[in-house]
Design brief:
Blueprint lengths: L8 E3 L5 E3 L5 H6 L2 E2 L8 E2 L4 H10 L10 H22 L6 H17 L1 E4 L4 E3 L3 H15 L5 E3 L8 E3 L12 H19 L3
Antiparallel strand pairs: 1-2, 3-4, 5-6, 7-8
Helix pairs in contact: 2-3, 3-4, 3-5, 4-5
Bound molecules: zinc ion.
Length: about 200
């Protein structure tokens, strides 16, 4: 059996972590909210500029100077606009037209400020973090297959990813994490409902 490839993990003081499991930078950005589907546990991993800088470095983005808290506000706004469009798609539904229009404005803003680094194929580069992430979102929507978008099957996780397996069989953000946890919960539920 082939050993599972270990992905780098960004660990937080509260025991939580971030993992680049989205298969795309724009989805890894969306996944900077942990336990999105469980309001009692939801954690935003980009509360300020320092946290954004740490995450950006983790996913390999270039940071040229100190990241301001206002930049984190901008990135969180972009993140939630991406989520509002990509989440329904991951469930096989159409996003709301107003949500698409709001995201479109942010994407066009990023494109408007981008430099052309290659003409054909067209490649763009942006200087600021929000614009780099807006370009990533543009590329996600433009180049990837909506039928490959998935939401982790665990009922509290909410992380999104592109299923790049050949037979479209991936259901967990990480089988070592949500997969195992869910299996353990099912096992526990079965055991506790058994007559004593
Ligand atoms: Zn998960």
């Amino acid at each position: 059996m082939k050993a599972q490839q270990r992905r780098p993990v960004l660990r937080y003081d509260d025991g939580g972590w971030a993992e680049a499991i989205g298969g795309h930078l724009a989805l890894d950005l969306v996944n900077t909210v942990s336990w999105r589907l469980d309001p009692d546990r939801t954690v935003d991993r980009l509360p300020d500029g320092a946290a954004l800088a740490r995450w950006a470095e983790f996913v390999g983005l270039e940071i040229r100077s100190r990241v301001a808290d206002e930049t984190a506000v901008e990135v969180r706004r972009l993140r939630e606009r991406i989520y509002r469009v990509v989440h329904p798609l991951a469930l096989g539904a159409d996003p709301d037209g107003a949500d698409v229009a709001r995201l479109r404005r942010l994407l066009l803003g990023g494109l408007g400020r981008a430099e052309v680094t290659s003409v054909m194929p067209l490649e763009l580069a942006a200087a600021s973090l929000p614009d780099q992430l807006a370009l990533a979102a543009w590329q996600l929507l433009e180049r990837e297959d909506a039928h490959r978008l998935r939401q982790c099957r665990a009922n509290d996780c909410g992380w999104l990813f592109l299923d790049r397996t050949k037979n479209a069989s991936r259901v967990w953000c990480s089988s070592a994490d949500c997969g195992n946890r869910t299996r353990a919960q099912r096992h526990y539920a079965r055991r506790t409902t058994e007559p004593r």
